[in-house]
Design brief:
The chain is α/β, with parallel strands linked by helices. The chain is built from 7 helices and 14 strands. GO terms for molecular function: fatty acyl-CoA hydrolase activity.
Length: about 350
């Protein structure tokens, strides 16, 4: 799979490009060609010795896609083939916004009813209106679906989605998952209010945003240090198994430091046995499904300053690719253990 995860934009391409699959029901076509000598550019002018087209799919045959538009909640539910019932996963992406479906499509292909939730858009929804109740409604919609095994749900968050996951799992009286997974998140920005209020609090540290010599934004320092934050999520309240996936070269979130502090807090609270931590040295913030190309820095709409920037995510290609493959397989195993095993018992 190295031919896939090692891909780079063609020289001369627009700065900050990132590959993301938006239509999961069409294949991604990868053209692989062999030439008579090493070439770094000018492929279109050469005749290949051999060529082939590889199809990459994000959905297995029979997976169903359902638009969710209920009680102001917007998302997409992916259901595995067959009558079910299946355990459910509430899938939360980060602060880039929009409805990102490819991870949920893959989860459904592995036997989980997964609901990708849109919580930063559309534009007519105000951030003041997105608070605990929004995620509680989404959780209840998933839990009450006839093809979902009731009360056998997980919450999976990436980046800002992990910040939300830790907050709602610790404090909500409605959201009681069997387990949760947080990829490169932090407990240092508690989500216990509306999105608007959370971002207003984050803006107090806006002076800690800085750029490198390539004018790429480094975001991780906007978080308070674990040893001296004004307030943080009381992770001692978490009562379900928690998997933390952290990247050693994350330049967007201090995920490793946060995980170390979470471990100490849970040890003190007596729930350390619920915690599993995966740390990947040399990996960056954007831990995607396996074999996705690594992007160290990409264009990003930074909600905090309402401006489009080039965000530095970090990571080196080979260790990052290993992290994506290993973390994905271990996430699937973790979800199966705590969702499917609980059904069997």
């Amino acid at each position: 799979m190295g031919l896939l995860w090692s891909m780079r934009p063609v020289p001369g391409s627009q700065q900050g490009l990132r590959i993301r699959k938006m239509d999961v029901f069409t294949a991604t076509l990868v053209h692989i060609s062999v030439y008579s000598e090493h070439l770094s550019e000018g492929f279109s002018q050469k005749t290949p010795l051999a060529t082939s087209v590889v199809e990459r799919w994000h959905v297995a045959p029979g997976v169903k896609r359902i638009n969710i538009r209920e009680e102001e909640v917007q998302g997409t539910l992916f259901l595995p083939p067959g009558p079910g019932p299946y355990p459910g996963v509430l899938d939360l992406w980060g602060a880039g916004g929009g409805l990102i479906e490819y991870r949920s499509a893959l989860l459904a292909s592995h036997g989980f009813a997964s609901m990708a939730l849109d919580y930063f858009g559309p534009k007519e929804r105000r951030w003041q209106d997105v608070d605990f109740s929004y995620f509680e409604k989404a959780y209840q919609i998933l839990n009450n679906h006839p093809v979902v095994q009731k009360d056998h749900l997980a919450v999976l968050g990436l980046s800002f989605g992990s910040i939300i996951t830790l907050g709602i799992v610790a404090y909500s009286k409605v959201i009681k998952p069997q387990c949760c997974v947080c990829v490169n998140g932090s407990h240092l920005i508690p989500f216990d209010k509306s999105l608007f209020e959370v971002f207003e609090d984050m803006k107090k540290n806006i002076d800690k945003l800085h750029v490198n010599k390539e004018n790429q934004v480094i975001h991780r320092d906007i978080f308070s240090t674990p040893s001296n934050p004004p307030v943080k999520v009381d992770v001692g309240r978490i009562k379900c198994p928690l998997l933390l996936v952290t990247a050693g070269d994350d330049q967007a979130v201090p995920a490793v430091e946060s995980a170390e502090d979470i471990e100490m807090m849970m040890e003190k609270a007596g729930n350390r046995h619920l915690l599993e931590v995966l740390t990947y040295p040399g990996a960056g913030h954007l831990i995607e499904p396996p074999y996705s190309p690594h992007f160290c820095a990409t264009n990003f709409n930074l909600q905090l300053i309402n401006q489009r920037v080039v965000m530095l995510w970090g990571g080196q290609t080979k260790p990052h690719a290993y992290a994506q493959e290993d973390a994905w397989n271990k996430t699937l195993a973790f979800l199966s253990k705590h969702l499917y095993n609980s059904i069997l018992h």
